Amino acid sequence: MKDTVDSSSINQTLTALDNYVLLGKSGLRTFGEQWGFGSSNDVSRKIFDRYYESGGNFFDTANVYTNGESERFLGEYISSKRSQCVIATKYTINPVPTPDADGNYPRNNANGGGNHRKNLVESLDASLKRMGTGYTDILYVHLWEYRTPV
């Protein structure tokens, strides 16, 4: 007996969920230019609008992406359509310290990174403030670290 493959669905129209648009050749983007690369606010807005108008509704960011600028841009873009968007952000990594008004960098915060509860709460609070929203739909651990017991 010969195995056969049902190929009748190959030429069928894609469903709405299959029509989502990838951003760029890799499908990955970072909003913001704080790292010396990435997309400006204007370009980011065009990417966001194109993605959203094409049916995209899932946005992934992190507290450290372009020093928080990615979350600020995203929050600005989703402000009028928050309930239609699914937002994921991450924590773990200790953000790069920013200088104070005098240009001095604060002392490194020993509790500012890791997967422990204190960093989770403080990172999430800062992310929500940057995005201007009261909640995130998904909160990921950005990377595994072996100091926090499970």
UniProtKB/TrEMBL annotation:
Q: Which stretches does the entry tag as region Disordered?
A: 97-118
Keywords attached to this Swiss-Prot or TrEMBL record, sorted alphabetically, are: Oxidoreductase
A Pfam family this chain is assigned to: Aldo_ket_red
Q: Which residues form the NADP-dependent oxidoreductase domain?
A: 27-149
GO CC term, one of those recorded: cytosol
List GO molecular-function terms, semicolon-separated. oxidoreductase activity
Kindly indicate whether the keyword Oxidoreductase belongs to this entry.
Answer: yes
InterPro entries found in the cross-reference section: AKR_Detox_Biosynth, NAD(P)_OxRdtase_dom_sf, NADP_OxRdtase_dom
Q: Does the keyword Oxidoreductase apply?
A: yes
Q: What is this protein called?
A: NADP-dependent oxidoreductase domain-containing protein
